[in-house]
Description:
The chain is 82% helix and 0% strand. By secondary structure, it is mainly α. The two termini are 40 Å apart. Mean pLDDT is 85; it is low at 233-237.
Amino acid sequence: ITPTRIYYGMFKLGHVLSFMLPPFFYKTLAEWGELFYAISETVAMAFMGTLLASIISMVLGFSGARNIVGFLPFHFTIRRSFDVLRALEQLILALIFIRAFGLGPLAGIFAITISDCGSLSKLYAEAIENVDNKPIEGLKSSGASRFQVMRLSILPQVLPVMISNSLYFLESNTRTATILGIVGAGGIGFLLDERIRANMWDEVMTIVIMLLVTVALIDNLSRFLRMKVIGKHDELS
Length: 237
């Protein structure tokens, strides 16, 4: 790193930004429709990946909770498998799945699902391990089965936490799906990469603005739903 390199880099950055303003305004509905379809594809990729990861992680979370499965070797193995899944970068997974399934959102959905399974499973397992034991003991003393204890006591306690975490991951995955699109997973990222390669910087700015608006809408919707799920009705900031 040298002052000269930083100076010339900032000069070039300013040069690029000058080409991005003002943003390009498309003149036909067909052109706008292409962008809106691509953004909806990106959001759908993030939603499906998060949904599948949440469902799978619910099963893995119960399996990895010490108060549910007390067999130490199994508990150790399942917890380390969470670490392995978390270590797999979504971008690398997307490149692998693109080779397997071809270009398109399917590769991005699988990449998001597998990567999120590690993180969500760990969060779910920790939430299950920290539940209040009094309702569990009450059900056991009344003769409830193991499955009934999980369904009637543990799940109601951890479900709001699970939904809240999944909604947070949905926000993050919307941004991630854009990056995955650049490497070939479809969606708005593919169009963004196409414009950058063609030096259409004013159109790049238009896409970036649309992305910012989309992410902001999803962020506020997700925050509102999280507040409802965890029982808080404070005014959103």
